[in-house]
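Model the whole thing, not chain by chain.
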Amino acid sequence: MLELSPLDAQHRALGAKMGAFAGWDMPISYAGTVAEHTAVRERAGLFDVSHLGKVLVSGAGAEPFLDTQLTNRMADLALGRARYSLICNEDGGILDDLIVYVIAENELLVVPNAANRQAVFERLAAAAPASLDVRILDWTTLAVQGPRSRDIVEAMYPSVKGEGYMRVAREGDVVISRSGYTGEIGYEVFTPPELAVETWGRLLSAVGDAGGEPAGLAARDTLRLEMGYPLHGNDIDASTTPAEAGLMWAVRLEDRAFPGRDAIAGAAPTKTLVGLRMTDKLIPRHGYEVRAEGRSIGTITSGTFSPTLRIGIALAYVETGSAGEGDAGEVDVRGKTGHAVIVKPPFVDRSPK
Amino acid sequence: MYPEDLRYTSEHEWARREGDSVRVGITHFAQDSLGDIVYVDIPGPGTAVNAGQPFGEVESTKSVSDLFSPVSGEIAERNGALEEAPELVNQDPYGEGWMVVIKPSNIGDVDALLSPSDYKALVEAQPGN
């Protein structure tokens, strides 16, 4: 049985194509993936991302506790800030990537991927001292993304005015963060479920007035891939390490102890996540083999047609040292040889900052 | 949705008899299910095709699907416009979004394909419809 967003009826009324994603029945597209993608890059898009996990860690000492569990430093995370981190196993394998938002004094909102919500919750709950409360919240998450999102969200939530990237504001029961997964300036709005319908309605109307439109998870995927953002379950998982995935920027080793720390500090990666930009019309997909000079050097973990570049793009693990930026690569596209160049993402010249 | 002058396959291609040739494309249902079509790979004139067998591919942002030939024969023409504008398949699946013209070995084979009402029944039996 799939979980339903509190906005399920709204999506159906808009004619959304719904689909199963990480145990949820979510809108995959409305008007069409390319149109939605373009709206976000050029104007604004509104996403329902209620499937994202919400785990609240509350009590005095919540920051130092999370500091013992996550790869990024949390001890110094101040009220009104958000930070990206990984959570690893003892071997340094990535259990999930997540964002921690300080939404109130001694209240940290941890947002893992939908598929990992239970695992992250159980791990934090098991490790937390008795003085802390760890619980799953049923809040709704909406994302307003795109160059016009600032005007839209500031008009509705004046307290976010001038808010910088990865900063968090609060208005009553609503948490508004300058964050997202598209590479554009954008906001994530967290509301209790009883405010979901009203908040969606107001944001959808404002986004529409600004020339934007609702956008589904298919556009969210093409947008994140154009930025080279990894997706847990595709590009990163328990069999990949932060160094292999190019995520050492989210790991702080100095003076810290957390699961996987020693493994991460000691290991030299044997595979490296790289970007591939096709130079012909073939489209790379998950699982396709990557070759250089006729020899297999790795496998694609995410691939799509880039609506912005109008060419195929992909993330792939290749043997460390086998291919560098600017080198030619080939992709086995169902028996046909696709030609690509190795690049360092992002594939498009955008920034959420 | 189901033009009366066409015949259909259970794999969601349409076929239109034009003299002793057959024009082929994918149905409205197929293009809607696939979503935005971004690449169409179809062979050129002279290529032999077999009824029920794949002869090309269509790709959306998300996935790739085979194109199945409605009849056996040889490709006489391909829609070159789709190279630069694959979105024509979404915009006009029964018109400018056509894929190939096939010269069938036996033109009578077209009549054995699904009728509009049979195809409509097949689509309406799909989950979610």
